[in-house]
C-alpha cells in the first residue's frame, strides 16, 4: 500500500485487537479481533477481523467478520461469494460490503447501538 491509498482507520482497528469492552450496565460486551493477513481473493484488503457484540450470557448478537465464505442468497440457486466479508445478526448472515476499516467500525457500532436499543439496554 502506498501512502496515497492507506486506509486511515486501519491503525485504529488494529489497535483494538484483543480488546473486550462492556458496553452497558446490563453486561453486554464487545470483542475485537483484527490482524493483518496475506492478501487473497477472500481477503483482498489483507485483513482478518471479527467484531462481535455479546449478550451477558455470552450469546453472540452481532458480528462482522471474514472468517468464512457466505452465500449470496437462500434456496437452491444460492452460491458462495468470492469474498468472505459478512455480518451476523442473531441467526441471520448477510454479505458485507467492506469499504475500509473506519467504515467497518462505524457500521459495527451503529449495529451495536441498534441492537442495544431494541433490547432496552440503552435509549
Secondary structure: elements and pairs:
Layout: H1 10-15, E1 20-22, E2 29-36, E3 47-54, E4 60-65, E5 86-89, E6 92-95, H2 101-118
Explain briefly what this protein structure is.
With 123 residues, this protein is α+β, with helices and mostly antiparallel strands.
Verbal overview:
- With 123 residues, this protein is of the alpha+beta class.
- The chain has one domain.
- The chain is 20% helix and 27% strand.
- The chain has 2 helices and 6 strands, in the order αββββββα.
- The chain has helices at 10-15, 101-118, and strands spanning 20-22, 29-36, 47-54, 60-65, 86-89, 92-95.
- Strands 1-2-3-4-5-6 form a 6-stranded antiparallel β-sheet.
- The radius of gyration is 15 Å and the shape is globular.
- The chain starts with 9 loop residues before the first helix and ends in a 5-residue tail after the last helix.
- The mean pLDDT is 88.
For the sheet with most strands, the description reads: 6 strands, antiparallel
Tally of individual helices:
2
Rg to the nearest angstrom? 15 Å
Helix content: 10-25%
Strand content: 25-35%
Report the end-to-end length measured between terminal Cα atoms: 41 Å
What's the overall average pLDDT, rounded?
88
Number of strands: 6
Give the SSE string. HEEEEEEH
Q: Which characteristics define this entry?
A:
123 residues, alpha+beta, 6-stranded antiparallel sheet
